[in-house]
């Protein structure tokens, strides 16, 4: 999504860290509402398959305290591939694999 926005606005140097998506919300099958950070400003934009609209400049920035969910998955996948993490389909279950529900 960020790459699409950068191409649409002809922004180069994506690895510079000056433009990032802070929050994203699906508004339909092909529509999203995004909060992007450009420098030290945050903007609310609407993105569709045909258009990108600037909706507002946020006066109070949204904090981005948690890491993206993909990072957690990436770390777990790397641990699994290294053999340091065993798969567990239902981590909350205390049953043994051979037991059945009655």
TrEMBL record:
This is Flagellar protein. One of its GO terms (cellular component) is bacterial-type flagellum basal body. GO terms for biological process: bacterial-type flagellum organization. The keyword Transmembrane applies. It comes from the Bacteria. The keyword Ion transport does not apply. Keywords: Bacterial flagellum, Cell membrane, Cell projection, Cilium, Flagellum, Membrane, Transmembrane, Transmembrane helix. Belongs to the FliO/MopB family. It comes from Paraglaciecola chathamensis S18K6. It is found in: Cell membrane; Bacterial flagellum basal body.
